């Protein structure tokens, strides 16, 4: 087969089914499809005698992850692993990588998206003349998706794959979501359900009047802030991620921080889990280091709860939850993270929690007053810029 | 202290903090507060010599739950248990009941809401001159909240308590949420995040053009339907509950079914968990039988996935997930539920799944085509009214 130049936005080899539905591609999709086509082309070239079919996948192992002190995000190193078709131990993964690449190509050409579970079902089939399945379970396809992200240097969202959604948003901004203008200042008690794919071709910002973003950990706390119209009084945007924020929420926070220059201020629990959520928002996730440069927000602040708050707010003993062994272990691990290790205020914060012997939830502030958190605690800390960086 | 008539919407004994913030009560809040005041008054009367302070709490035990064949919902029987202040084994629960009642009264008077965890913190304190806490953990306050619901015959949402939120909505309806009009036909890819409290004083319906509601199990499936604008083509409302729908979603479905006469059609997985979700939507939850009459939707339909679909849709072997022991056990339990037991189509459905030896997820239909579920499967089944009742 002769090598030929493919322009992904024009003619792409595809099944009749996909051709009939081919949509006009935007710039982002064209770019992603070009990367996918380059991958396919390299295999074609190899088949044409240019060498063995192989690819070089940037290593996602922890030993290839480092903390970039200058950019203040987690980065991946340069190490790659080779994946070869004609290697017994790598042939299946090679085939699976090509399947994932072909599945996402099909999604992009049809202008459709699916979940990572959907892609698994889309690509799973019994291999002809064999009893073997292409993928035995989703545990086999998920890492291959991550391989493709690093190999093609694009987020899975750009490959038209969505994750579960969690989290909601209200506040002084309008969002254009697939052409619909959504005024986040008129979203009642429910709010705008933040989708999984928030790339610029799907979501645009309009009419932002907010000065900052307050991101809270839990939807129950978010409801308190929304009910008290905190975002109106303090001219901000209010978000939550139902615990560890999902990719869509992190990416949206990143975009609003970068494009709209909005500071991101986090109100999380005073426990190792709250610290960890902050760490992921700020520096990125260690396991998915390759996404940090497009998701991490190094300027994010940790407003609270703080270990000093038990005394500072005059909380009663009833607000305390004793630390257990796993809390203590986790806290010590987090204190060793490179971005916390040389940060004196953070070292003091974690040390004090360990000395206290207890953790505190944001909800416990209700013991002072139902709206203490929205009317006193948060406004005072914001005014004093009393947060951890 | 002489007995005096209290009008909850006028002067209510309260701490200065709550008085300063007292809001004008609406009809629903007045009714709830009256029920709370009657409870308080009964204790005052007892203190004035009218007998021992005690209350009669409808029994929430399974033996007091029955299936109402006529209304086709789970109902509670007439049995009550007595809770007395001057009974060593009941004194703490009595005190806790009064605390929960007093906490919710405070919330209502202030026109605020909180989570059940928030209420726990609000009411938790060290009892004076004792080392004992009013509540040791939330495991003690949650059942007391349920006691108050049955005792006062009101939902926790009417006591201004909210649950976690999950689930989103789009489609041919406008919602007025706390005065904000939300057009669910213009909610982009994210949708309207359904709040926890959806009572008529918070949420009103406007301009409903939908013919029915399609409720799907998972947000990932919901995203597929929303992306394909299924709700526009088929003139409906599209909801999901991220698995077992939370109270807010169930109550909203109930209200749209009852007030707008919209049929509720469910698209869930072909597995015991999918059956169970349907059972709770339709007949109510066994553990919270008292809420059925205000949440259960006896006319709800189960569109799929069905055990026959593996053959009917010509799915490949790759779509199957083998049943495990716990699936089989659960399926047999569900087959014994009174509302399934005498329902021949349901007996066949469950029997066929057991015979198949595998379960099927809605996502697996993608192996036919990315939009098979929205363009072929669901429209065909709807047109043929091919569902289980």
Report what the structure shows.
2 copies of one chain form a homodimer. Chain A is α/β, with parallel strands linked by helices and 389 residues long. Chain A has 2 domains: 16-162, Orthogonal Bundle (Arc Repressor Mutant, subunit A), CATH 1.10.10; 168-383, Dna Topoisomerase Vi A Subunit, Chain: A, domain 2 (3-Layer(aba) Sandwich). Chain A has helices at 16-21, 27-50, 91-110, 116-123, 138-152, 219-227, 230-233, 247-259, 272-283, 309-312, 325-335, 338-341, 344-356, 372-383; strands at 54-58, 65-68, 73-76, 80-84, 114-115, 161-162, 168-171, 174-177, 180-183, 192-193, 203-206, 212-216, 236-240, 264-267, 301-304, 321-322, 358-359. The model of chain A is unreliable at 1-19 (pLDDT under 50). Chains A and B meet through helix 3, strand 5, helix 4, strand 8 and strand 9 of A and helix 3, strand 5, helix 4, strand 8 and strand 9 of B.
């Amino acid at each position: 087969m002769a090598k030929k130049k493919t322009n992904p936005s024009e003619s792409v080899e595809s099944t009749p089914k996909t051709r009939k539905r081919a949509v006009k591609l935007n710039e982002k999709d064209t770019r992603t499809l070009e990367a996918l086509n380059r991958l396919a082309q390299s295999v074609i070239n190899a088949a044409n005698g240019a060498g063995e079919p192989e690819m070089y996948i940037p290593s996602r192992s922890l030993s290839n992850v480092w903390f970039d002190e200058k950019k203040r995000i987690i980065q991946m190193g340069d190490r790659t692993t080779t994946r070869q078709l004609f290697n017994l131990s790598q042939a299946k993964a090679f085939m699976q990588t090509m399947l994932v690449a072909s599945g996402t190509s099909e999604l992009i050409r049809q202008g459709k998206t699916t979940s990572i579970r959907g892609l698994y079902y889309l690509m799973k089939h019994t291999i002809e003349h064999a009893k073997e399945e292409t993928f035995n379970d989703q545990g086999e396809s998920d890492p291959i998706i991550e391989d493709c992200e690093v190999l093609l240097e694009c987020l899975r969202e750009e490959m038209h794959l969505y994750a579960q959604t969690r989290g909601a948003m209200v506040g002084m901004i309008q969002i254009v979501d697939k052409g619909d203008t959504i005024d986040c200042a008129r979203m009642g008690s429910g709010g705008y359900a933040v989708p999984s794919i928030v790339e610029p071709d799907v979501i645009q910002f309009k009419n932002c009047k907010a000065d900052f973003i307050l991101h809270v950990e839990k939807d129950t706390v978010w409801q308190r802030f929304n009910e008290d119209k905190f975002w109106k009084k303090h001219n901000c945007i209010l978000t939550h991620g139902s615990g560890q924020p999902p990719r869509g929420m992190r990416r949206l926070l990143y975009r609003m921080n970068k494009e709209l220059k909005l500071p991101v201020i986090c109100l999380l629990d005073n426990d190792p889990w709250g610290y960890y959520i902050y760490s992921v928002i700020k520096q990125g996730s260690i396991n998915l280091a390759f996404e940090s440069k497009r998701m991490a927000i190094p300027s994010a602040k940790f407003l609270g709860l703080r270990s000093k708050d038990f005394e500072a707010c005059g909380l009663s003993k009833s607000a305390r939850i004793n630390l257990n062994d796993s809390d203590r272990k986790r806290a010590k691990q987090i204190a060793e993270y490179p971005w916390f290790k040389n940060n004196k205020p953070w070292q003091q914060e974690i040390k004090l929690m360990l000395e206290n012997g207890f953790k505190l939830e944001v909800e416990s502030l209700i013991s002072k007053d139902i709206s203490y958190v929205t009317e006193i605690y948060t406004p005072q800390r914001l005014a004093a810029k009393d947060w951890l960086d």
